[in-house]
Amino acid sequence: MARLFPYMHIHDFLSDELNAEILAYAVKRQLDFKQSVIYSGGIKKISESRISLTLKNFEPYKTIIQESIRKRVPALVDGLKLSKFNAGEIETEFVSYGDRSLFKSHIDTAVHKKTEKPRVISVVYYLHSIPKKFEGGNLRIHTISIGEEKEHSIDISPDNNSLLAFPSFAPHEVRPVIAPGIDFKDRRFAINCWILKA
Ligand SMILES: O=C(O)CCC(=O)C(=O)O
Ligand SMILES: [Fe+2]
Fold first, then answer.
1. What residue stretches are annotated with the Fe2OG dioxygenase domain (predicted)?
2. What ipTM was estimated for this complex?
3. Which of 116, 171, 193, 198 is deepest in the core (most CB within 10 A)?
4. Which atom of ligand 1 is nearest to the CA of 50?
């Protein structure tokens, strides 16, 4: 059977206070979240394969998240069994998923500018209100099958205040979110981070 890519899922990543503060901040910025895009052949476009809303600037939390991840780069490289590399910039975006949001199977290594450094590790910090108001929205990591091997996958639940890390080259998808009629504050929120090669 094809082997799964290593991944790390860390619960209670930030303090409860900071977690609640970031979620409240996202709700306050509701109108600044814009339709998410994908890059296909270097061109930015809106696509049915990625349905969500994205916020690019979210200081001071952007820096707070980047710093807490940077401290853990050696542990992530170790845990994901990757070869050591010099970590450079940590790219980030804040994404919000409502009813019928999804992100079909893809890899994160595609870069949209020639000058951009490659993404090595994908890290996602999840937030949602308690009790959780949506269903679905699991992150599914697929195996790559060689020859006759059967493809399989693992589903990871986007639990509030948890951090998921996996190699950016692993195929993955966000399963459809089912949440008819929910308020913006009850959506599935994720802060995507990519650790780039220096
Ligand atoms: O939200 C997630 O679980 C992952 C999102 C993702 O794969 C991406 O934005 O590239
Ligand atoms: Fe992704």
1. 76-197
2. 0.99
3. 193
4. 9
Mean pLDDT value of segment 29-54: 93
DSSP state of 31: G
Q: Which atom of ligand 1 is nearest to the CA of 108?
A: 10
**Rounded Cα–Cα distance for residues 4 and 101 (Å):** 25
Query: Rounded to an integer, what distance in angstroms lies between the CA atom of residue 67 and that of residue 69?
Result: 5
How many CB atoms neighbour CB 142 within 10 A? 18
**Could you tell me the distance, in angstroms and rounded to a whole number, from the CA of residue 194 to the centre of ligand 1?**
10
Alpha-helical segments (H) within the chain: 16-28, 61-70, 73-79
Structure confidence by residue, pLDDT tens digits, 48-99: 999 999 999 999 999 999 999 999 999 999 999 999 999 999 999 999 999 9
**11 conformational bin, left if phi > 0, alpha if psi -120 to 50, beta if neither:** beta
CATH 3.20.20.70 is right for the domain spanning 8-197? no
Beta strands in 31-72 (DSSP E): 34-35, 38-40, 43-45, 50-51, 53-55
